[in-house]
Every structure is written in structure tokens, then in C-alpha cells.
Amino acid sequence: MREWISGRNAVYETLRAARRQVFRLRLAQGVQEKGRLAEIIQLCRQKRLPLEWVAREQLDALSSGHQGVALEVSSYPYCAMQDILAQAEKLSEPAFILILDALQDPQNLGSLLRTAECVGVHGVLLPLRHTVTVTPAVVNASSGASEHLLIAQVNLAQAIQTLKEAGVWVVGLDSEAHAQSVERVHLDVPLALVVGSEGQGMRSLTRQACDVLMSLPMRGRVESLNAAVAGSVALYLAWQARRFS
Known about the structure:
Blueprint: E1 2-6, H1 8-17, E2 22-28, H2 35-46, E3 51-54, H3 56-60, E4 69-74, H4 81-90, E5 96-100, H5 106-119, E6 123-127, H6 136-141, E7 151-154, H7 156-165, E8 169-173, E9 180-181, E10 191-195, H8 204-209, E11 212-215, H9 227-243
């Protein structure tokens, strides 16, 4: 199955990661070959990919945020969860995994994937159903970070049990009153951080499977952060704890 990745950063990172089969590049007529676009064209020429100069309207039909460039590629290459655990072992690091429980917004998923890549998670787990997947819109929202991540689609209940058996501590991000404040939770251990969906949070079975529920302290008048922001804050706190452990 083929799809179109658009946006200069998303296209550039897709080419740089070299994990997908690529077919051709479309460029809007009149765009200037400089900066990131020049780097994209150079990579395509190195790979001997066809370059097509087309009317901007043709790119508008593919995406509203194309920035004058679109790349035709194969579908996203999901991995197995064992590949993620093997990556942590290969790097001789305690596992650092992000679990996303039924997110619905591509922008939120893209934002979390971008943060996850920045802090060096070993992989991301998505449920098999009831979730947004790694679509071209998500690749664009992540600025191409998704192309450098190991992402698996799994049965979450089974995956969490497997992680526990492998000695991974499963911490669910939750805003309920009974959740422990972040300063009381050890984040420098083999860790799987669970972020729930927008509005509803984690599903009940996922919440029950967590070893501990963790909340972020709130000082202002707003009751909570959105899923992408809360998850990103928690990922950075975990990275900080791991760096200084």
C-alpha cells in the first residue's frame, strides 16, 4: 500500500531514516531549491528517485500543509514488541517504553512521538483497535520523528503482562485523586509509561494493569493538561530521572 508524506521536515526525515520503500518526489512549480528542500532533492538524487514538478494544486489535493513537497512511500513499517525490548538490551539500557492507550487525535499522537524520539524511548506501543495509527498526518505532526521510532501494534493487556514478566515497571499517567504524585514514583527503572486518550484517559482494564498510577502536580486553576502535553512532561521527567540515576 502506498501513501503520500508531505511537509519538508517529514519528507526529509523519511528519506533520512530509509525505513520505507520510496517511489517518487513531487515538488510545487516555482519553489526555491534551498535550505531543507535542497537537502531533500539531494537525497532523492542520491537514491535516483524520480522528481516531478507539478502545479501547486496537485499537492493541495494531497495535503493542506505540504510546503511545496510530497513523497510517495510504502506504508508505515510497524515492528514487534520484542524488537523494542531487544533495542533496550542492545544499548545496555533499562527499558524505556511509551504506551498510548486509544489516542484519537493525529496531532496529539504526532506530538507524543516527537517527544518520545527526542528523549530516546526504545519504542512505542499502540493498541490494535480504537486508536489513531501512524498516518501521513501523524508523520507530519511529528516532524518526521515517527520514522526513527520503533512502533508496535499490540494487544495491550497481553503486552503489559509480557513487560511485567520482563521486569518492566508499568506506570500509568492519571489525574485521579488516588494517583501518586510524580516525585514519589521511581522513574529510573525499566519503565513503560502509559498515556490515556483525550478526555477519557486510560481504559479501565489498562488502568488496572498498571503497577502504579502517577499524577502531575497542578498549581493553576485549570484542572488538567491535555494528553500530549502531560505525556511529554512525564517523558522528560523520566528521562531526567534516568540521566541522573
